[in-house]
Amino acid sequence: MSLPDPGVLDAVRRRRGDLDDALLIVRDGLVADVPGPRRVAALRAGLRQLRADLYEHVAATEGPDGLYDEVRRADPRFGRAVRRLRSEHARLGLLLDELLAGLSRGSDESAGWSTLRPKVVDLIALMGRHRSRDAQLAYDSVSLDLGGQG
To answer: Could you say which residues of the chain have pLDDT below 70?
Structure first.
């Protein structure tokens, strides 16, 4: 099995860091002390950044010669994990689009904040689980034991 290209792994790591930074912005917007338009604006900015960073993450993992193709070519046993991660990318993108559309319909918290807030919390949880599975795939792909000694 050939290991994923170090350049591909570095690109994925950078994108993961960008996603983490955007998630912090979203969390800050979610728990901002000041209710109203400023909170919504902070949350909207975080979600927009998260959406942009997710696009870049998807390009680095699913794009031509991305991590997922390299991992799957190196060992077909990773195919199921790759399919799941790709599916999660689509789900995360749709959820982000839904949240951004909901925030654009109103300018303050009275415009559905009680409905949007749990969805943002769900998004943060989904991103965390996805990030964990994505990191596990990268780790497994470079540390797979190919045989014993003896």
So the answer is: 1-15, 32-35, 105-113, 144-150
Give me the residue label for tokens 């003896």: 150
Q: For residues 57 and 13, give the distance between their C-alpha atoms in angstroms, rounded to a whole number.
A: 9
For 142, residues 6+ apart whose C-beta sits below 8 A from its C-beta are 3, 4, 9
CA distance 19 to 137: 17
What CA–CA distance (Å, rounded) separates 118 from 111? Answer: 14
Please report whether residue 101 resides in a domain.
yes
Report how many domains make up the chain: 1
Interatomic CA distance for residues 65 and 62, integer angstroms: 8
Which range of residues forms the domain containing residue 90? 6-142
Instruction: Kindly state whether residue 150 falls inside one of the protein's structural domains.
Output: no
The pTM of this model reads 0.79
Q: At what angle do helices 67-74 and 79-105 cross, to 10 degrees?
A: 160
For position 55, which CATH number holds?
Answer: 1.20.120
Q: In Å, how far from its chain's centre is CA 99?
A: 15
